[in-house]
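Mods, move this if it's the wrong board.
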Amino acid sequence: MLLVLNIHPSRRVDLLTEQKLTFDQPIDAWGYTDGFGNACTRIVAPPGLTTISSEFVIYDGGEPDVIPRNAIQHEIKDLPDDVLVFLLGSRYCDTDRLGDFAWSQFSSTPLGWPRVEAIRDYVHDHIAFDYQKADPLRTAFGGYTDRTGVCRDFSHLAITLCRCMNIPARYCTGYLGDIGVPFNPDPMDFSAWFEVYLGGHWHTVDARHNTPRIGRILMATGRDATDVAISTSFGASLLTRFEVITEELKTAN
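Not the wrong board. Structure tokens:
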């Protein structure tokens, strides 16, 4: 199995305790860095039930996502070589099926961040969030036609529309606790959002929540959900239990 359950290397400097995966039985496991710079784990899982867990404390500045209002859109010829892949179609981001729509819908919007905002707002209003309508086979075009889904569907559609408009966009997964927002009684989960490359930097965008959030902890980035799946099994497997808890720790002054 391949596991993507570690925080992103860019956040290791913020760790206040060690972050590692633990197993409830002896497991052959070793780490590696994938082609996108994510910290991943390979394991050989024995037959039977295996529990994989991790618990850690990490520092976050408590500032909401930055809004880069003046970030410019690059000409394709000026993009770094390693960014070009995030203009291409991928497993869940079927740009070939949404290109005509994207240009008819967004070609009149200003280049750069205003165009990203227009795409983000459109996706936020177009898809209705519903855990019961999650579908691991749904692509961006499926999200566009079904108009329902979960955070990954918001991200896939927004990423695809950005790529159609020549804006590099990549899929992100990580922790996003209910910090600084009204209480949510639903079970916690890992969250999906995306990043766009403008003005020489990657910038966070969240089409599902459509508002800057606090306490976003990145785990991994990739072309789409395929590259950052929490587990990829080479053989039969069944996820019998899944729990994510992200809480703000109150510290004394």
